[in-house]
């Protein structure tokens, strides 16, 4: 056979073989799919191993403001469909039976977990999510003390769909939320890294028609250990070197003042005292005074006082979260263990980190510098 | 096919004995069968010899024949009779005409000459015939280029007359080394083809190869220079053009100066240049008539246009039908809402709208100019709007199709535009079956093919692949002229340097001083 002909035949064969691949013929057009934008997972009250899945499905023609008749004037923009099962897959199947179109998880933006899930249930959920190729690793996670179903059903203001609420909140990283956005892969990474426990931002239904993201839920493995409140979460963020454009109100001898943080860094170093590791975290914060303690004077001495008061305030927040994590939650959400593992792997291998973490000495050193007195227009 | 040193060549054949009756019989038996064939028996002066003029009606300049040939010939009549065997030589020397004059004793050669619009003068008793180049035939004036518009470039385009075209080129390149090699192609059409190049600059291997390939062509007639292209290219089955064609003499001059061979053909207002690489098809004269910032911007726009032409419909299909998880979630909802209730899958939408657009394009091209515009409006707006309101196609598709169409018009040459439009369909098919992965694989195969192409031995993707950093100055961007000091390396020219180094900044003239000096004087 002539080489050219042979090459052509080979190419043809390759293409024909390609056509037989699965996945090529099960394409579904967008209007034939039901996009799952948010997923909520609650324990089943009737079955101690069961899960209740709540899927938030938008109605494209109603949810799209660009279309005539959109924006909710003609009907509901979304609905929540539920499915039950002992695994995520069976619950999804159960939910699928109630929807005419094929459920599509590729556009899912948020997964809300109930804090009442058993560790074994949480493990099954996360493992299934990991195994489902449609679920993106970048989906945002949130945890609620109430029912995940309620968080997904709440009609929020400004957003046409509750799931987009999470998306908007978490993608505006510099906004003034006291929570750190966590995507699925970040949770997974923390969970699989020695000496590091995952956290998930907390969402609650604050009123009948609004959601609130405040605080973080702490896990140890797949076991939910508890929530950090606002102050503790702020302390957690300082320790992570994550800055939010957030104002701290401090009281000084000259009056009440507000400081807006412009940026902060946190550097952790390890030293040993005897056989015990000691962690020192240097937190450097620079900010501006957005409300001077005294409108008339506002001199160097006052600024000094403000800086000192801010320093005390930040240290309080940091100490609060450290105490809580070590004594009550007993979960190393800061990744101190991970750092110890990186720098002293042999030492780390010889100890049970979750055992010794509550007793480890951690020294936060806070340094606040006020850069300016704020922009006065 | 024959080769001649100049454009007044001929063939080989029947020997002429000097007997006028033989010549008359020869011509009457052959081209004499045609109604536009003319011969006239004349006597060169009262005491001169008998003679015969043979020509084709409408191809010669009658006035010039009368004034510049017949009048002097008649005055010389008596002298001719003295030495009849040498009459042709005597006439050749005494004619005042500036027209090319040739002697031959071959009747077939003479016939060829007559067919090539020459006038044949036969003196009875002289064994040689005279072929006089006093052609004059109806021809179009030099007009504006119709396919390669330029905002600031020259307004001249080639015509159908080879000589005119050569003149247009000569006027732009007055180098004594500019060579024109002419040869005839087409056993029946006998079309003149001119191969132009600059000696001591163009690589002689390319010239030789062009001539070699031209001589190998066995064809009855040449429809135009594009017919040659299909014979000359290195890879005859690729959809990509391997020779850049242009109707602009200034572009041809630029090609010649960069070290290329340019092929012109009679009856064709286009030229071909060899070797040509892909990026040549994206260079236009306007790029050199605007500042380099502007020119670079235009080139980038063309590059974006190319990307959109090739990939937009395929990516649309891949994202909508196969990989919707790659869409931003808000866009996914918008798409889903826009497509709610549509009866056709995306691939059908693309097929329908693309075929419709191709129809409109072709219809607008075939119709007379004023109607063409109407077709554009009717087809584009009315049908487009109707098809959307009827709920057959989503408005998104109209946006994408129209953008693709617009983008395809940014490519400066038609032939490369056709190639990319063809490749677009390949990618659409792959996108429908394999999604984004199909587009990637298709692109790999496509670029593999492009990388394997050569034009007269020059890699088609040069100077990008193989990479020649020094030549990148005139590709996707255009550097200023003073920075483009060397001719493209991939053409392997004999004279590499295009410009001498130019020192910036030049000295600022002392205006004040000169003014003061002038006033004092």
Characterise this structure.
The complex is a heterodimer of chains A (377) and B (521). Chain A is of the alpha/beta class. Chain A folds into two domains: 28-228, no CATH class; 232-372, GMP Synthetase, Chain A, domain 3. In chain A, 33% of the residues lie in helices and 31% in strands. Chain A has twelve helices and 14 strands. In chain A, the strands form four sheets. Chain A has a five-stranded mixed beta sheet. In chain A, strands 11-12-13-14 form a four-stranded mixed beta sheet, with helices on both faces. In chain A, helix 8 packs across helix 9. The longest helix of chain A has 30 residues, at 300-329. Mean pLDDT of chain A is 85; it is low at 67-73. In chain B, the strands form three sheets. Chain B has a six-stranded antiparallel beta sheet, with helices on both faces. A five-stranded antiparallel beta sheet of chain B has the order 2-3-5-6-4, sandwiched between helices. A two-stranded antiparallel sheet of chain B has the order 12-13. Chain B has three domains: 12-132, no CATH class; 162-276, no CATH class; 292-455, no CATH class. Chain B starts with a strand and ends with a helix. Helices cover 45% and strands 12% of the residues of chain B. Residues 1-12 of chain B have low confidence and may be disordered. In chain B, helix 11 runs antiparallel to helix 15. By secondary structure, chain B is α+β, with helices and mostly antiparallel strands. Chain B has 18 helices and 13 strands. The chains are: A alpha/beta (377), B alpha+beta (521). Chain A binds chain B through residues 18-19, 24, 27-31, 33, 35, 37, 58, 60-61, 63-64, 66-67, 70, 104, 106-107, 109, 134, 136, 164, 167, and chain B through 320-322, 324-325, 327, 329-330, 332-342, 345-346, 433-435.
